[in-house]
Every structure is written in C-alpha cells, then in structure tokens.
# Entry
Amino acid sequence: MIRLFEYQDADLFCHHSLDESPSPSEFYMHAHERMEILYFLSGDAQYLVEGSVYPLHPGELLIMNRAEAHKLQLLSAQPYERIVMHFSPSVLRGFDPDGLLLRVFAEKPLGRQNHYASPKFSALFSEFDAPGSPEHLRIHMLLILANVLYTLCSLSEAAASAAREAAPGWDVWGNEAPTPEVKDAPADSVELAGKEETHEPDNQRDPAPQL
# Structure
C-alpha cells in the first residue's frame, strides 16, 4: 500500500492511499472505535457492511459507524485507490455542539444507509492532499469533514422526503410508520368543504383571559 497523503492527531486520522496490486488477503472484516468516511476513487470492488453489500463506483462514498463491521471485497486485481477519514464525534463539538452534522451516523440502522453517490463529492475532496503545517492541515481536514457531513445530511433529508412521497406510511428505512390515532369528532362538529367547524350554544363563550 502506498500512502499518497496522511494526517493524524488525537481526534482525526485521514489518508489518501493506493494499492497497485491489491490482494484479498489484505482486506478482512473489522470495525473501528471512530466513525469512518471512505471516498472511493478507483478499483473493482464492493463493500460488505453488517451483511449489506454495496457495489462501488468511482466518486461514491461510504460511511461506517463506530463498531459497524465492514470489509472490502475485491472483484479483480485492479488498483484500489481511496480517501479515508476516521474521526471521533468530539472533534466537531466546538462548532456543532448538538451533533446535527452526525445525524447520518446517529439515526441510521446498523448496516443500512451506508452508501452515497453525488457529483458534489468530487469538489469536496479535490484539495484533500494540500500541503501545510500540522495546524493548517487540521483546520483543512475539519473543513472538508464538516462540508462532507453537511452534504450527507442534505442527501439523507432529500431521500427521506422522496421516500415519504413515494410510499406514504413508510419511513426512509423501509419500516411501517405508526398510524396516527384518529379521534371521533365531537357531536356538535360538522365537516364543511374539508374543514371542521364547531358549533357552540349561543350562551357559551370562551372565558376571558385572566390578566
């Protein structure tokens, strides 16, 4: 394996790597204590994540949660190139204290919703290998990470919205959504043109607000 670029500190481990002649024996099922983003650049492979198989094409992206078992499956010996970012959730706490950017990790079921495809990824990773001091590289990596996570959140929300429109009553994960409870209308209510109008006796009025 050739490391084309690498950055590492207490919260981040990021690298751009190339296997010119990859061997299946080098890639085995494993998991990490940190979250992982993998940007696939080239190769002939698919990814196995907790029993789900994801075919890979250049420019696509995978996310793996902490302790989510995954493995690369080579389909041929073509050179395998990728950009990988391992990070602790705490690395974003300074500017995202509520963890909004991590929803794609926190809300997804195990082994599902790991794969993303978007033409935006190419631009986000285009300057990944930029040189700089350790201080500048950390800021550079954090900016890339934040922008990638923001893009993933946008893609996830768009997919969820499309799923709800295509299949009302089902959520984006393919689970049946709970049916809202419908209560009987009061006896003194009538439905007019799709709107509910309530008739009250003339001698009843809303109580005056207490000042």
About this structure: Residues 185-211 have pLDDT under 50 and may be disordered. The chain is about 20% helix and 30% strand. Residues 134-166 form the longest helix (33 residues). Helices lie at 103-106, 120-124, 134-166.
